[in-house]
Amino acid sequence: MEQTVSMHLLVKCQDHNNNYPKMKYFYFALLIFASCKYSNDFKKTLVNNSKKSFWNRKDINSLGKYVYHHNQFEFNSDGYCNYLTSPSEDRKGTSSIINVEGASSFKWSYNENDSTLTIADFKYKVVYYSRDSILLKGENGNKFVLVR
Fold first, then answer.
1. Considering only CA atoms, which of 65, 31, 48 is closest in space to residue 144?
2. Sign of the CA dihedral running 116, 81, 142, 39
3. What are the pLDDT digits (tens) for 24-45?
4. 39: closest CA among 91, 115, 124?
5. Does the 55-147 domain belong in CATH 2.60.120?
6. Which pLDDT tens digit goes with each residue over 121-135?
7. CB 3.0 to 4.6 Å from 57: which of 13, 19, 24, 71, for a disulfide?
8. pLDDT single digits (tens) 63-113
9. Considering only CA atoms, which of 91, 80, 88 is closest in space to residue 118?
């Protein structure tokens, strides 16, 4: 009886080892699928087609407190975002002209390979995101958060 159980376990272990390469491919495919879903989730989080949807930009000061400087973003599914200003975090702002060409709308993109959000010519590393907040780190190392 002991010999039968030992042989059965040995066969199971050999079967497991034979399936190992197949399992590697399964886990690799699962990882790729999860990465794609992560990117799509981020874009869905960032873009909300509701007219009341906007993100307040808050800098993080040296004490770790969030400071609102009247800046807001509204991301659109067409790859453009609007730069808005508002004295109130609770109210959607109005378009603000922030460059010499007079534009208040800028191209944005998200690179899922390195989790980089690009707005106009500025690149930000997405450190963390949830449904209502996104922690970003600029190329200069400064961190700020977008809060819905």
1. 65
2. negative
3. 444 444 334 444 434 478 888 8
4. 115
5. no
6. 899 999 999 989 999
7. 71
8. 989 999 999 999 998 999 988 999 999 998 888 766 555 567 889 999 999
9. 80
pTM above 0.85, yes or no: no
Q: What is the DSSP string of the chain?
A: -HHHHHHHHHHHHHHHHHHHHHHHHHHHHHHHHHHHHHHHHHHHHH----TT--EEEEEE-TTS-EEEEEEEEEE-TTSEEEEEE-S-TTS--EE---STT---EEEEEEETTTTEEEETTEEEEEEEE-SSEEEEEETTS-EEEEE-
Contact 20, 112 (CB under 8 A): no
Tokens of 3: 């010999």
For the chain, which residues make up each domain, given as ranges?
55-147
CA distances 83 to 32, 67, 71, 96, Å, are: 34, 18, 7, 6
Q: Using the structure block, give the residue that is written with the tokens 């000061």.
A: 61
Q: Which long-range contacts (CB under 8 A, 24 or more apart) does 12-15 make?
A: none
